[in-house]
Amino acid sequence: MTVDISSALLDQLLAEAEAAHPCECCGILLGESERIGAILPAANVHPDPATHFEIDPQTLIDAHCAARAGDPQVVGYYHSHPNGRAEPSATDAALAAGDGMVWAIIAAGRVAFWRSGDAGFEALPYVTSPR
């Protein structure tokens, strides 16, 4: 599977990470299957946001309710690693549901995409479009 995302959304993810630094940003990826059409920033409600993230539960509930009403589907999540690498951490691996969702991890000025599965995380290639 190859993720399809616009260059504008990649820029938005990078800007979210920069604005949240030195804390982790986080949010929801919206779209259809492998196409990410929008992001929904969320408050990081984790007690230690400099090294962990937790998407505001109400934002997540609202996104799923909107999807059931016909809005874009929740296809995954994003967060940043302010002082790390754009790959899943041991904490990410321990907390991931293994549900096939796409994770975007932002670090060191780049975005990497991963799929959370039963066997852990799998790196996903991506293509950008001008949309």
Could you tell me how far the N terminus lies from the C terminus, measured between alpha carbons in angstroms?
20 Å
Extract low-pLDDT stretches: none
What fraction strand? 35-45%
Quickly count the domains.
1
- Inertia-based shape: globular
Key features of this structure:
alpha/beta, 131 residues, 8-stranded mixed beta sheet, single chain, 38% strand, Cytidine Deaminase, domain 2
Explained architecture:
This protein has 131 residues and is of the alpha/beta class. Helices cover 24% and strands 38% of the residues. A hairpin with a 2-residue loop joins strand 6 (110-117) and strand 7. The radius of gyration is 14 Å and the shape is globular. The model has no long low-confidence stretch (mean pLDDT 95).
Question: How are the SSEs placed, and which strands pair?
Answer:
Elements: E1 3-6, H1 7-20, E2 26-32, E3 35-42, H2 57-68, E4 73-80, H3 90-95, E5 102-107, E6 110-117, E7 120-124, E8 126-129
Parallel strand pairs: 1-3, 1-8, 4-5
Antiparallel strand pairs: 2-3, 2-4, 5-6, 6-7
